[in-house]
Amino acid sequence: MRRFAFETVDVFTDRRFGGNQLAVFPDARGLSDGEMQSLATEFNLSETTFVLPPEDPAHTARVRIFNRSYEMPFAGHPNVGTGCVLARHGLDRDGVLLFEELSGLVEVRVERDAAGAVTGAVIAAPQPLTTLLELPAEAIAACAGISPSDVITKAHQPVLASVGIPFVLAEVTGEALTRATPDIAAFRRTQAEFPKVERRLSLHLYARDPAAPDIAAPNGVKGGGARIRARMFAPLSGTYEDPATGSANATLGALLLSLSGAESGQAEIVQGVEMGRPSLLRVAARRAADGIRSTVGGGCVPVLKGEAEV
Is residue 301 within 8 Å of residue 10, measured between CB atoms? Predict the structure, then answer.
């Protein structure tokens, strides 16, 4: 039997047993593709990461991300969590790590407290915003177990969008967000009807919080800040609900900026409350030469260490 060390962390939180869980294998050399997938399935978390030497020595590592069913080209909380784990091993360079992934190069900026301890990280999504497909409110409402009238289309229709991995983004009322329950049969029907979503019919619902004040946008730009609640459902890939989805919220931040006239903006997004794993994600977006770019960041705390025998 071969042994491989792993660590688990809770991401997008400042306390254990909140946020989104992640397992990290800091040295995955010697593991086959099938063994990585089997380990990810065994951990049964939203994602598990496997760290390998980079192809370009100027970069920190090649990072492979697996959910319960398949390898992913990019994801948010796995990059934040893996960045924090590797930074605690002293592998960052002046607080920065560069990860080679299927969707491109991901930059991770480590956050530390006054004593130098790693507390979290901010990642830059590897691609600018692309919008791929609009979907009918009726189909999205059926997937979420809510009424079509609960879907708010004033700003945008439900849309398949990506900054590295695609999500269907839909605005809903706050009350509908709280009672949303994924209907797996409706997910299957919608995926079959709209094959462009492929096997990645991941539904990210959000609601603006009218009771909370907007967060000021950077550089004094008005209208760029927001306080938002969100939930993400991907039952067809094994994640019934996700407590904190960095890639989806990075996409949401980019989408919201695209709908405004602002040059940049930021938001705080709360997720995972209904699951009992409250998470806080800090999202920022800006207009760049190649489109709208976004970042997402948050806290990360260590939980477990151990070895897997393969």
Answer: yes
Question: What confidence score (pLDDT) does residue 219 get?
Answer: 37
Contact 151, 140 (CB under 8 A): yes
Dihedrals φ, ψ of 28, to 5°?
-100, 15
Name residues whose C-beta falls within 8 Å of residue 57's C-beta, 6 or more positions apart in sequence: none
- 137 φ, ψ (degrees, to nearest 5): -60, -35
CA 58, chain centre distance (Å):
26
Q: What are phi and psi of 254, to 5 degrees?
A: -65, -40
pLDDT tens-digit map of 123-181: 999 999 999 999 999 999 999 999 999 999 999 999 999 999 999 999 999 999 999 99
Strands (E) located in 116-251: 118-124, 130-134, 151-152, 159-162, 166-172, 203-208, 225-234, 239-242
Active-site residue flag, 47 = yes
Q: How far is CA 200 from CA 71, 153, 190, 224, 271, in A?
A: 12, 22, 11, 29, 20
Q: At 202, give phi and psi (nearest 5°).
A: -110, 120
Do 224 and 265 contact (CB within 8 A), yes or no? yes
Per-residue b or e along 247-277, where b marks 16 or more CB atoms closer than 10 Å to that residue's CB:
bbbbbbbbbbbbebebebbbbbbbbbebeeb
Q: β-strand 279-288 against 239-242: which pairing, if any?
A: unpaired
d(CA 204, CA 245): 9
User: Which residue among 7, 47, 107, 268 is the active-site one?
Assistant: 47
